Amino acid sequence: MRQVRTHWKSFGRRAAAVLLACWLLPAAGTGAFAFRDAPDGISCRFFDAALGLQWSGGTAIWVDAVGRVGGGKAYDTQRLAAANSPLALRWNVLLLVRGWVSGSLPNDGVLLAPTQVGAGGADFHAREADDVGQRPALRVRYGDGGVQLLSAQADAHLDCSTAAGLGERKSLHIGPGSAGVLRFDVSRLRKGPQQAIVAAELILFRDTSVGVWSDGSLAAYRLATPWNETFDAPERGIAAAYSGDRGIEMDPAVLWADSFANGRMKDGWNKAQMVRAKVRPPVAAPTTEGGVLALPSLEVTIPRAEHLGLDLRYHLPRLADGNGRSEAYFRYYIRLGSEWASSPDAGKLPGFAGTYDRAGWGGRGWNGMQGWSARGSFGKGATPDHPAHGLLPLGSYVYHSKTESAYGDILVWGGAGGAGLVPPNRWVCVEQHIRLNTPGKGDGMLRAWIDGKPVFLRRGLRFRDTPQIAIENVWFNVYMGGKQAALRDMSVNIAHVVVATAYIGPLAP
Prior knowledge:
The structure is a single chain. The protein has helices at 8-19, 94-102, 415-418, and strands spanning 22-23, 46-48, 53-54, 61-63, 76-80, 88-92, 110-114, 122-125, 137-142, 147-151, 154-159, 171-174, 178-183, 197-205, 216-224, 229-230, 254-258, 270-273, 278-286, 292-302, 308-315, 327-336, 347-354, 372-378, 392-399, 409-412, 421-422, 428-435, 444-450, 453-461, 473-480, 490-500. The chain is mainly beta. Strand 9 (137-142) and strand 10 form a beta hairpin. Strands 17, 19, 20, 22, 28, 29, 30 and 32 form an eight-stranded antiparallel beta sheet that branches. The chain contains three helices and 32 strands.
């Protein structure tokens, strides 16, 4: 019997309880792709390790046959018994396949997991198995009696004893602490009114060279990917009432706004290190929504062989009672130069901070009595063979109580159909919202929007242990690395900054 740390059934339900989100059809996005079974692809911790895109609940989440996230109503269940289990196990996935074919369900894959804690596990031949006849298959039968077999496009087991991707192994280890995921290309199925699907079976063949882990049952569910994670849409934003942000600084909910008009920055910035940053006249570029914007901006450059492009801060005003603020919204537009798509390392972008020059940044680990930060982040550029090549993953770089090292955690924004994977040379609207926790409790929240689409929500965060720690500033940090410096000059434009006490939203026409 293998020693494992996580049981998938109980973990999935716990994770679903804290997500407070649902998985639907993909929203309009730029970067969504199916899971990959490469070594830097899907794993217990990551949906895509190359991008650093983690499962928001800590590990893979499923949707059951009645649409419940982490629910227990399986599409089908098959029994395993060490003494007399058949070599081939068959799950009835007719409802799932019909949903994939009709488009009513996203075809993200199927997840197999034990139904009971510590029971039900076996080793199965994977799509990489030497014997082609024992590889996973989807068997579909049509109303006219015809039968079609599909081979798996991708498969992997998500062993929670490692963060590595195991999709290139010849066996699928499915059992306690190790779910199996498989994906099939149903576009290859026959089409037309005479090709009604009347039966569909997922077939796996046991690998007897390894042996059965334990007696029990394995259930089939629909895999839920980060792309289909959706959150409550915000109410109408402040910016909707101000065409082009004109006059938005007068709104009672706005704390600060700078459009970089008239060729200058407004008074009030704390200009720690500007490097080569300078205000530029309107820069015209397409938007990710298909339009064109021409925006005056602050142009920031990370010089070749350097790390820092900008260290600029806006200090939030205190409340009337003298206390610091515990909640704020922050919106800006960003246009990344083409060189960012091949960024050699991850790094930092604007976000929130309360470091007080004591803790929570630069390897000065989180300390609930001294400081925290939640800057934005960008990821390393994907390799040419990756489906996200040419796009840059945005996210949050957070120093909080569960940070595992002296450095922060990168939380990639994966919702809204991959809208957090942004193309270069496009104006993108980025908005972040933070609500600090009650001191000492894990009830803080961080969320983000791209072009008005919610792409990220994380609850249960603990930033501070004392009310003396608050939101000190909005930190405009543009920094390459990590250890890797910029390989060439890397330019980015920042425009239409607004800090407020309520949701702001994109520019109004």
